[in-house]
Design brief:
By secondary structure, this protein is an all-alpha fold. It contains 8 helices and no strands. It is globular and about 65 Å long. Mean pLDDT is about 80; it is low at about 140.
């Protein structure tokens, strides 16, 4: 597994570094605009700052999630549809270790982006405290355990999304040779899996009677549930890649 991790990191480290620099630059620009607003009090500057703050928040939440999900280290697209996959098939590496290594490096990549976004939020909060302004206000709870739970929730959702995508693409590649139909198979597979997850999540909420913030700790039930689903999908994906995928 260690050799797989080293190999995956060496392949994707430049892309991770480049993406991190771009994200950091966006955060830096929005912070600079926010501080300049104290000097330039025009309405245009306020609008310009608001736009960059919005860009920073979108990039840090939805953007980082989908960038890592679609083109990040954990994606199996290269193993299924590129020459990399053909090369990997010739190497005697267990599919569980191969796919597991990709998922771990993909997760580390996502954690890097989450860490950058956390620093960005702290800087925004520091600005709000020092300037006593209502222009931007971030409410930070006193409970570090809540932050830890939210962090674990984000990580769990990312792993679940990554395993769902990898399973859908691997299933399509396993049984459909015509690439014209592969997209349809992937879309249908994702739809049914997400429908199942939504149904089981709704049923879980009905049982545990989740009421935020009083029942915040019950979120760990969903974290455990999503982790189990991710593990099952990961194992099935590894079996399909090993037994059914022919490149």
């Amino acid at each position: 597994m260690l050799s797989v991790l080293k190999q995956e990191f060496s392949i994707h480290k430049k892309n991770i570094l480049f993406t991190s620099i771009i994200i950091t630059a966006i955060y830096a620009i929005s912070i600079i605009c926010l501080w300049l607003r104290n000097v330039i009090t025009s309405e245009n500057m306020a609008d310009f700052t608001a736009i960059w703050l919005a860009i920073g928040l979108v990039v840090g939440t939805v953007g980082a999630f989908f960038i890592t999900l679609g083109k990040g280290s954990g994606s199996m697209i290269d193993l299924l549809y590129k020459d990399t996959g053909l090369l990997m098939k010739t190497i005697p590496v267990n599919s569980l270790k191969l796919i597991g290594g990709k998922i771990i490096i993909g997760l580390l990549e996502f954690i890097i982006y989450v860490a950058l976004f956390s620093v960005y939020l702290c800087m925004l909060n520091l600005y709000a405290i020092n300037n006593s302004t209502e222009f931007i206000k971030i409410s930070l709870s006193d409970s570090m355990f809540e932050y830890f739970s939210l962090f674990c929730s984000a990580i769990t959702l990312f792993i679940l999304a990554q395993t769902v995508l990898n399973f859908a693409f691997t299933l399509s590649k396993s049984f459909v040779k015509n690439t014209k139909w592969s997209g349809i198979i992937v879309a249908v597979t994702i739809y049914f899996i997400l429908s199942f997850i939504v149904e089981i999540t709704g049923a879980t909420f009905d049982v545990i009677h989740f009421d935020y913030p009083e029942d915040f700790l019950k979120i760990w039930i969903l974290i455990i549930l999503f982790t189990i689903i991710s593990i099952v999908l990961y194992i099935i994906t590894s079996i399909l890649y090993d037994k059914k995928v022919n490149l």
